[in-house]
Design goal:
single chain, 148 residues, alpha+beta, minor pseudopilin epsh fold, four-stranded antiparallel sheet, 8 strands, elongated, Type II secretion system protein H, membrane, cell inner membrane, T2SS_GspH
Length: 148
């Protein structure tokens, strides 16, 4: 047997090596699938916080763009948001497990945005697991601020 034919025969993988690789890949896939989607409390809290802030920003933008006062109402039990400008109302479900409450534990949180960009001062808490944030509306500027 010459040196060239031995190199050609030794090139590639054996059946045993291929079987080991497939078993390891199968175990890794099994671990990922049984664990479910890769989510944690931080991601869930961040998603809920983003949904709530987006709804508040949309209400403020509506007030400024259309030159009308807009009322934002959030039901803390069902997480349904209602944005009303007096003549027209839009409702939507936030679909978030984040707990929302104000200091008085009212079932409905109300915020009011005015046509000039200002807002009725408001503050409420967001909580999920060990994560918490306070959302405040500035009366003078109407800005929505988050303090973690």
């Amino acid at each position: 047997m010459t040196l060239e034919t031995r190199k050609e025969r030794d090139a590639g993988f054996t059946l045993l090596e291929m079987m080991v690789v497939l078993v390891i890949a199968g175990l890794l896939i099994g671990l990922v699938l049984t664990r479910g989607p890769l989510r944690n409390d931080a991601m869930t809290f961040s998603d809920g916080q983003l949904r709530i802030l987006s709804a508040l920003q949309a209400a403020r933008r509506e007030a400024v763009l259309h030159g009308k006062d807009v009322t934002f109402e959030l039901d803390t039990r069902t997480h349904i948001v209602s944005v009303t400008d007096g003549a027209f109302a839009v409702t939507s479900d936030l679909r978030t497990p984040v707990q929302i409450r104000d200091e008085q534990n009212k079932p409905i949180i109300t915020a009011r945005f005015f046509a000039d960009g200002s807002a009725q001062e408001a503050s409420f808490l967001l909580r999920y697991g060990r994560y918490a944030a306070r959302v405040t509306l500035s009366a003078l500027t109407g800005r929505i601020q988050v303090q973690n």
